[in-house]
Amino acid sequence: MIFVSLNLTGPILVKRIIYLLILPFVIIAESFGQDPTFSQFYANALYLSPSFAGATEEYRFALNYRNQWPAVPGVFHTYSISFDKALTSFNSGIGVLATYDVAGSGDLSTTNIGLLYSYDFNINKQWHIRPGVNFKFYYLGLDIAKLIFNSQLTGGGVTPTITPPPFNNVADVDFATSALVYNERAWAGFTLDHLLAPKTSFYGDNSTVPVKFNMYGGVQILKKTRLMQKNQEILSVAMNYQRQGRYNQTDIGLYYYKEPLIFGLWYRGIPFITTQAGDAIIGLIGIKTKQLHIGYSYDFTISNLVSSTGGAHEISLVYEFNNLSLGQQRKRIRAIPCPEF
Asked: How far from 111 is each of 2, 11, 29, 137, 147, CA to CA, in Å?
């Protein structure tokens, strides 16, 4: 068993002992049992689904950062960067996505770098379907020097002798596929990730990342426009369900946009069925212009399983390059109506 290294001195001794006892189980379960979760899932559209690759007027650049449980020493930090481009002449989109997630005092890190492609089909005049794929490189690393193992714990304290695993990194390849259907007011889709089951063991056994299934969608229930102007006011309801191994999670809520401000409020969890460490009420505030989208969200943890964690902070920045000529605008792929947060 791996323990998180903490300084057990000072006035908060009892609190840190509790963290020492529970965090190994939580960190290992979170790190190997599920992928990182972004509350602003539409602000990290390529991470949600490769079908969103190129679902922009021209180019799009996105940065995302999540700090989960900041009140607990050295737990979760997740970074994501992506770039995608619309290939309007081919009804397609391409993109590149890189994510880096680090967990615990032992710097258990996961890196994914993927190439994405999507294609847009017209079903009829109203509906489109957009399948997508993501071919990616997977890397799992561990800084063994920062960990304390149970073999080091003795009656006299901690001894420096350890028996480390034979590997401190694991590299593999992975694949994800998806499909998205949409019209001017509604959208729905699914993603299947980790279909190549990349390895996760530092001991060379057959442990793998479990397949992740995402189902997402939404509808614009209010859409006000003004003559000769773009949309000024939009109210959308959206959801994102994911299952990975034994882990289930549903995000459902509302987004309200009144230029240039956007607000969001939604619930995360499986109501009346399970209680998990990630259950939360999430609030969002952001600014959205034609090209620049900036959002901040906070997860207020409501689970009884882990308290006093500090919730989670998340920041997103999306920049779209919209410099199309009139002729190019006429040929562009229809915009997907989902929020950008």
From this structure: 21, 37, 18, 8, 20
Please state the φ and ψ torsions of residue 244, each to the nearest 5 degrees: -145, 115
Instruction: Summarize pLDDT for 151-202 with one digit per residue, the tens.
Output: 555 555 555 555 566 666 899 999 999 999 999 999 999 999 999 999 988 7
Tokens of 211: 């397949």
* Token pair in block for residue 294: 């900036």
User: Are the C-beta atoms of 231 and 212 separated by less than 8 Å?
Assistant: no
* Number of Cβ within a 10 Å radius of residue 192: 14
Please give the structure tokens belonging to residue 207. Answer: 């442990």
For 122, phi then psi, to 5°, come to -90, 120
Query: 161: exposed, middle or buried (C-beta count within 10 Å: 0-12, 13-18, 19+)?
Result: exposed
Q: For the chain, which residues make up each domain, given as ranges?
A: 2-331
3-state SS of 81-92 is: EEEEEEEHHHCE
Kindly state the tokens that stand for 268. Answer: 């995360």
Would you say domain 2-331 falls under CATH 2.40.160.40?
yes
Number of residues in the chain: 341
Q: Write down the residue that tokens 């590997």 correspond to.
A: 167
CA distances from residue 340 to 222, 238, 264, 337 in whole angstroms, order as listed = 16, 11, 11, 9
Q: How far is CA 231 from CA 225, 257, 259, in A?
A: 5, 9, 8
Residues 6 or more apart whose CB falls under 8 angstroms from that of 32 comprise 200, 207, 209
CA gap 222, 236 in Å, rounded: 7
Instruction: For residue 322, count CB atoms less than 10 angstroms from its CB and return exposed for 0-12, middle for 13-18, buried for 19 or more.
Output: middle
Q: What is the largest CA-CA distance in the chain?
A: 78
Three-state secondary-structure class, residue 131: strand
User: Of 66-80, 105-119, 121-135, 261-275, where does the model show the most confidence?
Assistant: 121-135
| Token representation of residue 138 | 């997977």
Q: What is the pLDDT of residues 225-242, one digit of tens each?
A: 765 566 679 999 999 999
Predicted pLDDT of residue 115: 99
